[in-house]
Amino acid sequence: MSGMRGGGGGGGRRGGGRVSSGDARAQRAENASAPVIHNLLSRIGGLFTPYRRPLTLTIILVIVSAALSVIPPLLTQRVFDDALFPRGQEPDLRLLAILVGLMAAVFVSSALLGVWQTWLTATVGNKVMGALRVKLFSHLQSMELSFFTRTKTGVIQSRLQNDVGGVANVLTNTISSVLGNTVTVIAAFAAMVLLNWQLTIVAVILMPVLVIAQRRVGQVRARIAGKTQESLSDMTAITQEALSVSGILLSKSFTRQSAETARYSDENQNQVNLQVRLEMSGQWFFAMVNIFLSSIPAIVYLVAGFLLNNGAADVTAGTIVAFTTVQARLMFPLLGLMRVALDLQTSSALFARIFEYLDLRPAISDRRDALAVPATSAASGRVEFDQVSFRYPDMATDARPTLDDVSFTIEPGQFAAFVGPSGAGKTTVSYLIPRFYEASAGRVLFAGIDVRDLIQNSLVSHIGIVSQETYLFHATIAENLRYAKPDATLEELETAARAANIHDTIASFPERYDTVVGERGYRLSGGEKQRIAIARVLLKDPEVLILDEATSALDAISERVVQAALDTASRGRTTIAIAHRLSTILAADVIFVVDAGRIVERGSHTELLERGGIYARLYSEQVTTS
To answer: Are 185 and 249 found together in one domain?
Structure first.
């Protein structure tokens, strides 16, 4: 991946043990272990590009508000020197009223502009954050299947929720804070110099020291923030694994609830410790800054006394009051800029984690000249493997390939079955046809065209898949069915359900097609879930139907009902069955026997029995044990 080094898609925690802020060499090593994204600041700025108009208005409001904030101290000098204590004269109440009125007008204007500015920054910031989350989600949708098989779901969820949420404050407040504080600092500094340049030197002499200290604190906070997000990823993964329906069933089945609680508790304690460290990091720094800022007015009074004692004519009571007021206008925006800089340094680890995922490139993507599957063709529904070999991406280079020099042709409308021992490579065949994985060598052809030359969405739209592990959403039966065809009418749903032998069962439910199936369909039996999955595929009406051990997890009665539905579903379309139970594929036009990644036998059920090979042995074993 260009522009990035460090970890890939996995969820392992980066970083080592505790590193003190004074150990620069160890700190650099710690930072080097995190993902490094080139041009990170420019890429963060690019997120705001679609919102130029509201940003421009925000910038104008920020500049105006910052400029207005310097006016009251200057008016204060006039109030003291010209209105309240004019030299040798009585207080000028008319001038005092005018000046006080101007100050009130400035305060009201600043407040109104502040409300408007806050609404704009909150709107833009949250829109950017929302767009970033959708962009990340959409990008993950394009990733190949192997990415999800090697990455915990909880880790992916953490990137979408915790990491994007963690940068919300930066996205919402950074621009207005940086601009506002910068303009305020410049204006206040200019005002201080105009009031008295000697006092200005006293007020700002220690600023460089604070900036250097702030940078060191920011490095420590960024490291701790990265570890905190990794810990959140682990907690999310534990929650997703342990509190899903499958996880709860597993922990209860093995009485491991206390162990799961202990696992979560350990990671939670780690998270607590990291959050405390994150909160405390930099507190001594800001305590010193606050002491410094609070002490400056007293130092100014002391220096002003020396200046007055030496006959300085430009140091008046109004000058001192105005100067200390302006000094506060300078110091607190400087403190704000330091906090923003710390936030940016802290959030850089989160942005790096987000862009790390955005920089992932799908291993499988459409070519620029990719074609749609022809609507009508003599080869429609034909599936061919031409000397196909395949090994999974995470396999050792010297390991035996999952598929090795596999060739076959399934003609349109044929019922083909793949059988063989577990791990022989049968399911891998079903992954290569819709191009969920890319063949390592050879060609996979669909309708006579290499699948690498086809638009993948077009390819998949012509293929229906019914797997052993049926996935249903926590939604109604109708919503689960319409996942295949969003605009399907109730009549179409019922037609598909009847073909799948599930309509009568649905009709017996009090809420019929509006029945909520529960998470992963756990309110339904295995046979009912499988038949709903078949009905969903029938709504799609694909040319090619892939059945990946669709009945192997069912009891004998459910299997017969589901098999009848599958027989209906396979009529008139090319059907490819990955079978464990050979009784389900006796009527197949052709049976391919796969062993150790190679097709070792092929033929009809009768032909294979007569040969007395692997198929005959498998069939004999199943008949004997049934």
So the answer is: no
Q: Is 21 left (phi over 0), alpha (psi -120 to 50) or beta?
A: alpha
Poorest-pLDDT segment among 42-56, 149-163, 242-256: 242-256
188 and 264 inside one domain:
no
Cα–Cα distance, 327 to 307 (Å, whole number):
18
Q: Is the pTM of this model over 0.70?
A: no
Residues 436 and 580 in one domain: yes
pLDDT the model gives residue 236: 74
Q: Tell me whether strands 403-410 and 383-390 are parallel, antiparallel or unpaired.
A: antiparallel
Same domain, 429 and 401: yes
Contacts of 432 (CB under 8 A, 6+ apart): 385, 388, 390, 403, 438, 439, 444, 451
65 lies in which domain range? 25-195+339-363
**Is the C-alpha dihedral spanning 199, 202, 208, 214 positive or negative?**
negative
Give the pLDDT confidence of 369-425 residue by residue, as tens digits: 999 988 777 678 899 999 999 988 877 777 888 999 999 999 998 999 999 888 888
Q: Which residue has the higher pLDDT, 599 or 211?
A: 599
Q: Which two tokens stand for residue 560?
A: 């017969």
Per DSSP, 288 falls in state H
Around Cβ 614, how many Cβ atoms within 10 Å? 18
Dist. CA 137–CA 235, nearest whole Å: 20
Give, to the nearest 10 degrees, the angle between helix 197-204 and helix 283-309.
160
